[in-house]
Specification:
mainly alpha
């Protein structure tokens, strides 16, 4: 009984190895397309500069 079990285990291991090698052979891709150029990264628009006029705010009143 032990010998039959050992033979079955060895046969099963052989099947697993044979199946795994055939799957990797079919899993290989043969892609002959030309490589794509990488997409250009769009730079965000520059934010407008702050207004640096020194006139001050005429609506501001010093309330005490």
């Amino acid at each position: 009984m032990k010998e039959v079990k050992r033979v079955l285990i060895v046969a099963f291991m052989g099947l697993v190895l044979a199946f795994s090698t055939s799957v990797t052979a079919f899993g290989q891709k043969n892609d002959n397309r030309p490589p794509k150029e990488p997409e250009k990264v769009k730079q965000p628009d520059k934010q407008p500069r702050g207004n640096n006029n020194s006139q001050g705010n005429s609506n501001r009143h010093g309330r005490s």
